[in-house]
Design goal:
Blueprint: H1 3-13, H2 17-46
């Protein structure tokens, strides 16, 4: 993304593209954490 695109993105979205990538990566890890908790609970209750 060049400087003009980054400026336009930040002006329209209200946050920068690197901030968005941090949010998306955090969401992926949160979903993985929830899935892991669900899997461990299911394995524990099933035994």
């Amino acid at each position: 993304m060049n400087a003009a695109q980054a400026t336009a993105f930040q002006a329209n979205a209200g946050f920068s593209a690197p901030d968005m990538s941090i949010v998306l990566v955090s969401l992926v890890f949160a979903v993985l954490l929830l899935w892991g908790v669900w899997a461990l609970r299911t394995a524990y209750v099933g035994w």
